[in-house]
Amino acid sequence: MREPRDLSALAGDEVVVVGGGFGGLSTACYLADADADVTLLEKNGGLGGRASTLEADGFRFDMGPSWYLMPDVFETFFGHFDREPADYYTLSRLDPHYRVFFKDGDEVDVVPDRASNRETFESYEAGAGEAFEEYLAKARENYEVGMEHFVYEHRERLRDFLDLDVLRHARGLSLLGTMQGHVEGYFDNPKLQQLMQYSLVFLGGSPHNTPALYNLMSHVDFELGVHYPDGGIGAVVDGIAALGTELGVEYVTDAPVAAIHGAWGGFAVETESGDRHLADRVVSDADYAHTEQELLPPGKRQYDADYWDSRTYAPSAFLCYWGVEGDVDPLAHHSLVLPTDWDGHFADVFDDPTWPDDPAYYLCAPSRTDDSVAPEGHSALFALVPVAPGLDDAPERRERYREFILDDVARHAGVDLRGRIVLEETFSVSEFADRYNARNGTALGLAHTLRQTAPFRPGHRSSAVDGLYFTGSYTTPGIGVPMCLISGLLTAEVMARE
């Protein structure tokens, strides 16, 4: 991966970063390293944005991201500052990477050993082992070319893609079609198709609306591996925040921003408590739509309400955090529970929004790996069911769905939790909207549809306000912790060029 371009033009600038998610934390580090004077304002009591942590009664849960993928991106990020991840946290590679419970009673482990995974594929379909190798070769090509020439490059305008160098590198990439069509070209068995598509959950899309290019996620999954940072993703947040402190970033928590004003050739960022922070430039890692619709006056917005209403949003989620007495066998650290036909669940999210009656969902049991996240003799477990953004999640609806999920976990994953839950919290559409100012309560932001990928995502710079910039999952390169880290670099480079 390339080194950052010259950021020295940022030296001496007073910059306020709004929001302490991974995009904001990353941007703040790059700016401070370039000798800008950086203050980061975070709405909530802790840093991390959606990657927050729940601690109660001896249990600890990652409330948002819980998969540590693309370790090369974290190495590149810390390497920019002459550090490495091991300076701040330790990693363990999971084995299995994850376990899949199909609702017909079938069970599959995806493991670190490539030959074993090939045998698994071959056992489901004659010739699928060879197709598995071919698929991963294509995924690796897409990953290596895509990361170097597209993800780490700032190409937020369509014309940025229309030059000979870009076209040369793009030759052979899976740029057209959907993930569903791409996977069907390799595998007939629907379970094998699902194994190659499950990672779309991390991109907030479905097999039918996500570009085929994202088959690169299979390289991430099968080749780069799934890791666990001791202490969870919260330990990564703490590590990046510590790096920022070393570089000179000032963090202010419990400081929800009420407005961004122009003032004396720069900005005044006003918090709800009435504090005013003056800045030459402002970077927003808050929800993009919230920033434009709520923090800026109408004449300073790039997009109107109709634009935001017309976007395709990534799913929200129904989350249950459970402190459980005893073990949660046969779950792995990461487990997926999948119907044999999951098209209905995606339809319930994207086509006809409703609470899924045959959901695909994720179970995370970090206590299988980390004894520190639960008291002795107990397990930490959470369930995440992707649901449509904007759903009514009134208490009675949530209670009925909780009961439904408990029954489903017992039936299809073999874990009866009833009578053993000693701690419980739920989190859903309403909390995503209230806690993170997330449009329609989306858990992730804009989905990675063909019309919302690369130059079709909102830009890093405001076209309406000089000196206002954006970072995080709404911008390029998009959704996910690694992508938000990279967005911080791209935002800093845009700022330095201007």
From TrEMBL:
The keyword Iron-sulfur does not apply. Pfam families: Amino_oxidase. GO terms for biological process: carotenoid biosynthetic process. It comes from the Archaea. The keyword Oxidoreductase applies. PROSITE patterns: PROKAR_LIPOPROTEIN. Gene3D superfamilies: FAD/NAD(P)-binding domain. GO terms for molecular function: oxidoreductase activity. Residues 23-495 form the Amine oxidase domain. Pathway: Carotenoid biosynthesis. SUPFAM superfamilies: FAD/NAD(P)-binding domain. Keywords: Carotenoid biosynthesis, Oxidoreductase. InterPro entries: Amino_oxidase, Carotenoid/retinoid_OxRdtase, FAD/NAD-bd_sf. This is Phytoene desaturase.
